[in-house]
Write a structure and sequence with these properties.
Number of helices: 12
Strand order of the largest sheet: 4-5-6
Radius of gyration: 20 Å
Distance between the termini: 51 Å
Low-confidence stretches: 1-5, 7-16
Helix content: 25-40%
Shape: globular
Order of helices and strands: HEHEHHEEHHEEHHHHEHH
Number of strands: 7
């Protein structure tokens, strides 16, 4: 029973728009497309499919499944995620990565690819409003054939605060994981230092999207998602105002275009922050 599930167990500690989703596959699919558009290539392959009830319950002999299998045809939307072995937790180090990205330490040129990669992951989480890497166990890497590949792992709770990510905690996504925020005196989880060094290729691409040199991120995401069986994907998101009851009558479904426009708004916010960093430190110190 949907109404029997307490909101706090569905949404965690949130303010403003509360996420009340019971399914996460749509966010995984949308996040995969954002990852590919930005050329990060950090998410394992993900694809959506629509299976009907006759297929879905074909090999389940329970009485319940027999009832669904013999019912008139209806569809189940499914997100299929590639399985990866050898995935390990890999929290980014504060002294060699975090401290450098917040402009509290000098750049080690031999470490620049790790700096760019970590910055890209933080930017990605900001753009899709994914708070799961707030705790370091959700930082992952894939170890294969004597090589290591950083991953963007588990985006099922992306777009946690709706299309625009206007919750105050969303800006703090640019501060990286919680351990970075609290490791030095004077800073806390809520009052933290956002990174001020970024992958130059990523920022140049986002600038092009923002200035119509190429289609905006929202436009590209919309076109990319057309290949999916669950297009436009965002119709599955369920939210409510934090101050209202969890009843079904208070559930809000935004339009998909709200989310595509929201992506552009977040790109604008991010670029504003980058420009503030450049004003403070200079472009050569900010763009790696």
């Amino acid at each position: 029973d949907y109404n029997s599930i307490p909101v706090k167990t569905r949404s965690g500690k949130r303010t403003g728009i509360v996420d009340v989703r019971l399914i996460q596959g749509w966010a995984e699919v949308a996040a995969f497309h954002v990852d590919r558009i930005l050329l990060f290539n950090k998410k394992p392959p993900i694809v959506s499919r629509q299976f009907d009830n006759h297929f879905w319950f074909a090999y389940d002999s329970s009485v319940r499944s027999l009832r669904y299998r013999n019912a008139p045809t209806f569809e189940y939307p499914v997100a299929l995620v590639a399985w990866l072995d050898h995935v390990k937790s890999a929290s980014p180090d504060w002294d060699t990565i975090g401290k450098v990205l917040v402009q509290a330490a000098e750049i080690d040129k031999e470490n620049i690819e790790n700096l760019r990669s970590t910055s890209d992951t933080i930017v990605f989480d900001f753009l899709i409003d994914d708070h799961d890497k707030h705790n370091v166990q959700n930082w992952k890497e894939w170890r294969y054939a004597n090589a290591t590949y950083p991953l963007v792992w588990d985006s099922g709770l992306g777009w946690m605060h709706g299309p625009d990510g206007n919750d105050p905690t969303c800006t703090n996504l640019l501060c990286g994981p919680k351990e970075w925020r609290e490791i030095e005196p004077g800073w806390t989880d809520a009052i933290c230092r956002p990174i001020c060094r970024f992958n130059s290729a990523t920022i140049h691409k986002l600038r092009d999207m923002s200035s119509n040199v190429e289609p905006s991120l929202g436009e590209q995401l919309k076109e990319s998602l057309r290949s999916e069986a669950i297009f436009p994907a965002f119709q599955y998101g369920e939210f409510k105002a934090a101050s209202r009851s969890p009843g079904l009558s208070n559930i809000v479904h935004f339009t998909a275009d709200n989310f595509f426009e929201g992506m552009n708004n977040k790109v604008h916010k991010l670029l504003q922050h980058v420009e503030q960093c450049i004003e403070s430190f200079g472009e050569t110190a900010v763009l790696l």
